[in-house]
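Structure in, sequence out. Go:
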């Protein structure tokens, strides 16, 4: 049975005056503000040993005790969906997620998810820390992003991998096609938070945001587009898409952070069906053996087709 996880956090000078729910969402990598508020409401957060309201304004050297309740055993419905397994052992499973597949159930996508496929393949041999919706899921990639992600098959592996990701010791390398030319490699070090007016989007902002760092390298140049490699130092929601759009180089096919009116998006509209982004390489330390492991998967056929078309155009 999975035990509760308890963490103790101490406030610093920069935290003084900050709302408690905001502090928790900023401090804890995978905790949203609404999840923090639910934990506060249910009495799983103490400040100096006392239950406190979500709008409590922090003081210097406050001791915040956060308890993650033991998750309900996973009873999500398994579905017989083929998945591309790159590697599997008793602790982890690395999969190559296809474009168009949602990682876990959410509003509007309750079936056909990677979680459903994993439950069919693994049965109950998945970490329970993610709860009934996200069993085994340590990190995610967007529905229309393809490529590698690692899944934990037990709680010990989940905690170990989560800590690696939090400490930026997991290397996640993506390949993408950006609209527009680039002169040189660069790094984007800009915080990301919810868009101020569109809550379904993320944006570069200083308000209620988290630091985000993306290293961008040029792989190949075309007329009006650039084939790039992006290495994540952090893993914020939509990070690569937001950072490249902020640099006025949105990803090909990304109609959320780009525009359908851009000529290349119109040209490849039927080919892309979403951003041209692939999680190509994953490097991590195995939770049991403590050996470094490197996984690589080829870019999908549609991506290759676009590259070939761009080369012929040039």
């Amino acid at each position: 049975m999975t035990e509760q996880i308890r963490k103790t956090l101490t406030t610093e000078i920069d935290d003084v005056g900050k709302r408690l729910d905001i502090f928790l969402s900023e401090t804890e990598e995978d905790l949203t503000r609404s999840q923090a508020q639910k934990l506060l409401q249910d009495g799983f957060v103490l400040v100096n040993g006392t239950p406190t309201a979500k709008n409590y304004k922090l003081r210097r050297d406050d001791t915040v005790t956060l308890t993650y309740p033991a998750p309900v055993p996973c009873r999500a419905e398994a579905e017989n969906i083929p998945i591309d397994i790159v590697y599997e052992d008793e602790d982890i499973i690395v999969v190559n997620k296809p474009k168009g597949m949602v990682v876990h159930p959410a509003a509007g996508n309750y079936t056909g998810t990677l979680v459903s496929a994993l439950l069919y393949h693994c049965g109950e041999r998945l970490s329970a820390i993610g709860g009934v919706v996200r069993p085994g899921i340590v990190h995610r990639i967007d529905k229309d992003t393809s490529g590698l992600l690692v899944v934990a098959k037990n709680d010990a592996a989940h905690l170990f991998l989560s800590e690696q990701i939090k400490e930026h010791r997991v290397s996640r390398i993506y390949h993408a096609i950006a609209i527009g030319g680039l002169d040189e490699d660069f790094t984007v070090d800009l915080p990301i938070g919810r868009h101020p007016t569109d809550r379904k989007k993320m944006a570069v902002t200083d308000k209620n945001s988290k630091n985000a760092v993306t290293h961008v390298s040029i792989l190949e140049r075309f007329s009006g587009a650039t084939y790039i490699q992006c290495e994540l130092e952090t893993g914020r929601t939509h990070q690569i898409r937001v950072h490249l759009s902020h640099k006025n180089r949105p990803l090909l096919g990304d109609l959320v952070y780009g525009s359908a009116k851009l000529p290349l998006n119109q040209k490849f509209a039927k080919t892309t069906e979403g951003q041209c982004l692939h999680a190509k390489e994953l490097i991590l330390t195995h939770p049991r053996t403590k050996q470094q492991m490197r996984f690589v998967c080829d870019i999908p056929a549609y991506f290759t087709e676009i590259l070939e078309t761009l080369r012929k155009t040039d």
